[in-house]
Amino acid sequence: MTQHAHHHGAHHHHDAHHHGHDDSELADTLDLDAKVFGPYLDELIAWVQGHAPRAPRTVADMGAGTGAGSLALARRFATAEIVAIDRSDVMLDRLRSAAREQGLADRVRVAQADLDAAWPAIGAVDVVWAASSLHHVADPGRVLRDILAALNPGGLLAVVEMDTLPGFLPDDLGMGRPGLETRCHQAAAQAGWNAHPDWGPHLERAGFEPAGQRSFTIKPGTAAEGAVPPGAARYAQAMLGRFRTALQDRLAADDLDTLDRLLAGDSPDGLLNRRDLVIRGSRTVWAARKPAA
């Protein structure tokens, strides 16, 4: 993961705040992101653990979405209480269900909050995890100062962002012009999707001490090799469907036609029937500490 207080990847949540009827669709996308990118999430959290206080008591997931991050944090920090923060009832309901299914309900509590209004009154925390969520708040500087105030001395904040939106298509699809997905990503970037800065200077301005920064790149595999995880075709369908709906004014007519063919569920050219899908993506994590004194 997408994650969120506002989302992805999505995980989560990639282009706009989620509200009302959009929540269920976005929650589905976040769940697919967790299926496809879960192993890399575990690797990333293991790296964060190396910078975190030993045996943290409380870990907060800022913009928790459907809970992929919260539950991975619960597994990694086995003695900590996880506080999952999100403003969406739909997201938090899914998160509660997932926690019950995984036997983690007694260690995960939820806090419904709009981070644009205020940081929730959840008490002091030792680790804050903010995946694909910080770039969506209206005033990141204020939220960072709120997080600093909430952390115990020596506590850690981990900010995670997708470097680019996830990629699934080969350059040449055997139909349409090569480079369709590249053009979709360019149009999404022009529309401001997944726009975020280098958080390092922002963290320092808020009063944090840098602890580390690292990028995690997904090693691509293809469906033909059996290396594409379950859910990848459906995730690709969700992402390309969002491109088709939200970016139609920014894409050429022939590219829209190709997207329609890819999105047709019963077409041999459709995403669900292709064997040439790949998984591409990378995420960067910034780790920073509250000064110990």
Radius of gyration: 19 Å
Percentage of residues assigned to helices:
25-40%
CATH level-two architecture of the largest domain: 3-Layer(aba) Sandwich
Helices and strands, in N-to-C order?
Answer: HEHEHEEHEHHEHHE
Q: Indicate the low-confidence ranges by residue numbers.
A: 1-21
Question: What is the count of helical runs?
Answer: 8
According to CATH, the homologous superfamily of the largest domain is Vaccinia Virus protein VP39
Residues in β-strands, percent: 15-25%
Provide the domain count.
2
Computed structural class: alpha/beta
Which of globular, elongated, flat, extended, rod-shaped describes the shape?
Answer: globular
Blueprint of the fold:
Layout: H1 22-49, E1 58-62, H2 68-76, E2 81-86, H3 89-101, E3 108-112, E4 125-131, H4 140-150, E5 151-162, H5 180-190, H6 199-206, E6 209-217, H7 232-246, H8 253-263, E7 282-289
Parallel strand pairs: 1-2, 1-4, 2-3, 4-5
Antiparallel strand pairs: 5-7, 6-7
